[in-house]
Amino acid sequence: MRRLVSYFVRGLAFVAPIAITVYVCYRIFDAFASVDQLLGLRSFPGLGFLLTLAFITLVGFLGSTLLARGVLNAVDSAIERLPFVRLLYSSTKDLLNAFVGEKRRFDTPVLVPAPEGGMARAVGFVTQESLSRFGLTDHVAVYLPFSYSLSGRLYIYPASEIIRITATSAEAMAFVVSGGVTESARGA
């Protein structure tokens, strides 16, 4: 019986990541099927997905030109004036820019004292090197992501308490999000 349970757990460890990945990919493509329906492209499944990718790439290209940058800034400014929409828009924009924008924020992995205290340490990311606008000239903002989650918490630490680590930000994030079981994080 113990051997059967061992085989089941081993099979689960192999099948679950594949099944979850396939399910998430299916849900993404299923969402783009509604784009196909909206554009009347039911006879060409997947064309809505390709058109969406092309549109996003075109906006990225136009956003890098001087003329279109003014238009995109005007749209950005208009959205920033709408009360509830502003909160949702700016939060989403800041989150995406933190990972993939020109002003990446999660590029400095550090080791800090764990919030619970004691001798434990936590892996985090410096998001603001200077908090002088809050009167905290010798402090930094450190984001500590949660394991197996896309969320985390922001802490303020004295700059003297952070230790920069040699891992890349991708390696450190994979290490934290996986609960420390990934082997790709060297130095974390």
Architecture overview:
Helices cover 51% and strands 15% of the residues. The protein is an alpha+beta fold. The chain folds into 2 domains: 2-78, no CATH class; 109-177. A 5-stranded antiparallel sheet has the order 4-3-2-1-5, with helices on one face. The two termini are 39 Å apart. The mean pLDDT is 78.
List the strand order in the largest sheet: 4-3-2-1-5
Biggest sheet features: 5 strands, antiparallel
Low-confidence stretches: none
**Mean of residue pLDDT values:** 78
> Proportion of β residues?
15-25%
Provide a count of the helices: 5
Approximate shape: flat
Distance between the termini: 39 Å
Total number of beta strands = 5
SSE succession: HHHHEEEEEH
Helix content: 40-55%
Radius of gyration: 22 Å
- Structural class computed from helices and strand pairing: alpha+beta
Work out the count of structural domains.
2
